[in-house]
């Protein structure tokens, strides 16, 4: 078996169907897609069709990026297929995803926390058999009382939120770069993020 090693693995969660484009649930993959473009990473679809992947170097550290090409609730199947022939410790995996329990625009980077009802994270926990990996939680806000959370996360950001989403993506990319070099510094950077007033 030819195992490849990786210093860091970044995974962005989403629903790949076009009807879910730019929705709150897709913010994880949207952030990683911007990171990929910004760093001119060549991305290829795996022959299994389960994920897209590419590699770059940041400060002499190898970084692999993975975007699952399956529905959100099957994210774990995609990630397990990717790491099958890889040597990577869970603590070097960072999964980027939406979080409705965080206020809109807030960020939290932590390891080993509960899935919080997120189906993509539930799937990853199940297929990896561990929760000891890092997650960048991206706050998309709580839904209004009259809207089902499952419907809310599949909705697009409001017009008055779109400018802040752009800043949120840029700041998240900075945190990804920091994470590759210094995890503790990245945790601090995420916790200190300030948001603009949404009016």
Which class do the helix and strand fractions yield?
Answer: alpha/beta
Q: How many angstroms does the end-to-end distance come to?
A: 56 Å
**CATH architecture classification name:** 3-Layer(aba) Sandwich
Q: What is the count of distinct domains? A: 1
Tell me how many strands there are. 9
Beta percentage is 15-25%
Numbering strands along the chain, what is their spatial order in the largest sheet? 3-4-5-2-7-9-8
Largest sheet properties: 7 strands, mixed
- Following the backbone from N to C, one meets helices and strands in this order, namely EEHEEEHEEEHEHHH
Percentage of residues assigned to helices:
25-40%
Detail the poorly predicted runs: none
Q: At the first level of CATH, what is the class?
A: Alpha Beta
CATH fold field value: Rossmann fold
Work out the helix count: 6
Give me the Rg, rounded.
16 Å
C-alpha geometry: globular
CATH superfamily: Peptidyl-tRNA hydrolase
What is the secondary structure topology, with strand pairs?
Elements: E1 4-5, E2 8-12, H1 27-38, E3 44-45, E4 51-58, E5 61-68, H2 75-83, E6 86-87, E7 93-99, E8 107-111, H3 119-128, E9 134-139, H4 149-152, H5 162-181, H6 183-191
Parallel strand pairs: 1-6, 2-5, 2-7, 7-9
Antiparallel strand pairs: 3-4, 4-5, 8-9
Helix pairs in contact: 1-5, 2-3, 5-6
